[in-house]
Amino acid sequence: MLYSLARTALFKLDPETAHDLALKSLAALGPGARVLGSAPGTRESVSVMGLDFPNPVGLAAGLDKNGDYIDALAALGFGFLEIGTVTPRPQPGNPRPRMFRLVGHQAIINRLGFNNHGVEKLLANVARAKFRGILGINIGKNFDTPIERAADDYLACLDAVYAAASYVTINISSPNTRNLRDLQSPERLGELLAAIMARREELAARHGKAKPIAVKIAPDLDDEQVSAIAALALEHRVDALIATNTTVSREEIAGDPLAKETGGLSGRPLFRRSTSVLARLHKALKGRIPVIGVGGILSGADAHAKTDAGASLVQVYTGFIYRGPALVAEARKALARRSVP
What we know:
Blueprint: H1 2-10, H2 15-28, E1 46-48, E2 51-53, E3 57-59, H3 70-74, E4 80-86, E5 99-102, E6 107-110, H4 119-128, E7 135-139, H5 150-161, E8 167-171, H6 186-207, E9 213-217, H7 223-235, E10 240-243, E11 264-267, H8 271-285, E12 291-294, H9 300-308, E13 311-316, H10 318-323, H11 325-338
Parallel strand pairs: 3-4, 3-13, 4-7, 7-8, 8-9, 9-10, 10-12, 12-13
Antiparallel strand pairs: 1-2, 5-6, 6-11
Helix pairs in contact: 5-6, 6-7, 7-8, 9-11
C-alpha cells in the first residue's frame, strides 16, 4: 500500500528523476527501511556458484549503478544484490531523455549507456556499506574503448573489484554501448573468457580465494548462438550465466507510441523472450553451469516460471519499479513453496 501510493507520485515525474528520488528517499529511512521488506523465512537458502544465498531472489544490476544504496536495498529482503554496471573510468552515458515508461505494458525502455561514476567511486561506496551479504559487481567497458581492446577494460575492472565482490558479472549484452554485443560472437567471446578466467586464476592465488565469474547475455539470440555461448562457458569453466539483459525487439509493444525509442526494453514484454533463452541455455548446459533468470518478473508466478525453465536464482529490476518490495516477498514465497516436499 505504501509503495503504491509513492509510485503514483513518482510516476508523475521523469523516469530517471523518479528513480533517483525513490532511492534517496529509501536511503533516508535508514534502518526504518526494514519495515518495507520481508522477514527471513525457512527453507529459502540455496547454494549456487559455491555461495550460500539466504534466499534466491536478487536485485539485478542497473538499479544501483554506483553502489550508493547498498544498505537501503539490502533491507528490503533480497537474497543478494548486484550493483553496476561499472566501467574503469567515469562516463556520463547517453544524452537525456534516456528512460521511458510504458505503463500499459509494465515496461521500461532505457538507453542509459553505462552511466556511472567509475570503479574507484563504486569501491569507496562498497567500503562504506555495512552490508555483509552476497554482493555481485557487474563490470563493463567504457564507451570509447575500441571493441578490439575491450578485454583491457574488463580486466582492469576485475582487478579492482575482485576483493570486494562475492561474484563478478561480465556484461557483454547491453544494447546501449556501441558494438558491445559483438563480444557474444564465438571468436570474441572465447578470447575474452580466456583472458578473464586466466586473470581470475592469478587473482585467486593472490587473494587466496577464487571468486565466481558470471556472464550476462542478451535475449536476442538464436539457437545456434545460445549453443555456442553454452559451449564456451563450459570450455572456460564460467561459474554462471545470467539470462537475460534487455531486448531490442519491439514485437511485444508494436503500435505503442514509444516503441520507436531506441534502447533496451525490459519488464513484462521481455518475459517470454528471456525465459525462452533461459530454457534453451539450461538445456544446452545440461545442469553443468547454473543459470540466473532475469527479465520480466512481475509476480511470484513469474519467478516460479523462471525456475521451472532452469534458473537456480532469479533477479528483478523493472518489476521492482512497478511493484516495489511486495514483489520481493511474493517471489520469495513462491520459490520457498517450490522447495517444500
